[in-house]
Amino acid sequence: MTQLTTRSETPISRMGYGAMQFGRTVDEDGAREMFRACTDVGINIFDTAFSYEKGESERILGKLVSPFEGEVIVATKAPNDRPASADNLRDAFAQSRQRLGLACIDIYYLHRFDPVTPLEETFGTLAEMQSRGEIRHIGVSNFAAWQIMKAQAVCAKFGTRIEVCQPMYNLVKRQVEVEILPACNDQGIAVCAYSPLGGGLLTGKYAEGARGRLSEDPTYASRYGQPWMHEAARGLSALAQSRNVPAATLAVAWGARNPGITSMLISARNTAQLQPSLDALNLVLPDDLYAEISALSPEPPPATDRSERN
Ligand SMILES: NC(=O)c1ccc[n+]([C@@H]2O[C@H](COP(=O)([O-])OP(=O)(O)OC[C@H]3O[C@@H](n4cnc5c(N)ncnc54)[C@H](OP(=O)(O)O)[C@@H]3O)[C@@H](O)[C@H]2O)c1
Hints:
By secondary structure, the chain is of the alpha/beta class. Helix content is 41%, strand content 13%. The protein contains 12 helices and 8 strands. The chain has helices at residues 28-40, 56-65, 86-100, 119-131, 145-157, 180-187, 213-216, 218-223, 227-243, 247-257, 271-279, 287-294; strands spanning 15-18, 45-47, 73-77, 105-110, 135-141, 162-166, 190-194, 263-266. Helix 1 runs parallel beside helix 11. The chain is globular, with a radius of gyration of 19 Å. NADP nicotinamide-adenine-dinucleotide phosphate (NAP) binds at residues 18-21, 25, 47, 111, 141-142, 166, 194-200, 203, 205, 212-213, 248, 265-269, 273, 276-277. One of its GO terms (cellular component) is cytosol. One of its GO terms (molecular function) is oxidoreductase activity. This is Aldo/keto reductase. Residues 14-296 form the NADP-dependent oxidoreductase domain.
């Protein structure tokens, strides 16, 4: 298994912070407060992307991480709106490095699988960047397991490998359990998973009529639009109330307890929202509670669709 560390060799924290909302629902002051709240509790991985808010997320995160260079892991992603060709990758990477103000990016992800550009061109370019010391680890996000394996074979031709994967994972998005987590485990790929709260659904706020990303962003409204997902969120809230813990804390702790997850990427629009997710760092779910939470959503069927053991 790839052991991710900071350049100063501190192991990656069990939770990371995702800066997707920087420049959107979070301004620079809010970002600074949340960054401080994270570093205060030992969070040392921060995630952004070329595409977040036209680079504003990278710019804001860059200012925050600059005094901590080498002490935190900074991950960004290639654009998700154009092919991962050599020219596009080099051009976007140069912009990301400039916005972040970093000579070396710890993790550089492909944000999605590109079915058009030959994998040799894409991963050969990433391998070159890595051999020049511009990136430490090659990552992939939103790849299916077969795409990871295919790309891994191509990486081997260039003497490198995919070391990190960033899939979505939460109580109502469990598809990764079927193929992606086993593939990553087999390949020794670290997994930094995103959306532990289902974009906010699992806080339970929508059952109370509150507003947020799911009522403002059609992509998220649709991603989490199925009635059974809202039913699972209500079940989680009831369980949380009975245990006197915020539902958000349970949701994040549930994702982080999966042994296939290296680090869970949390996020919020302010420190008050962030606190219940941070509290999950100190909550190890006992087996019975973990099983009760897991039972709130359907376990995805196995890849072979055969649930019989023989
Ligand atoms: N690779 C990818 O394709 C990809 C995709 C998505 C995310 N990511 C990464 O993963 C990170 C985390 O993802 P995510 O933002 O989807 O995580 P999430 O934890 O599922 O959702 C976070 C959102 O939930 C709401 N929320 C959080 N705490 C709350 C609380 N206590 N009470 C009420 N609402 C609360 C806030 O949104 P509202 O207040 O607006 O409702 C917040 O922005 C991102 O920042 C990004 O770095 C990557």
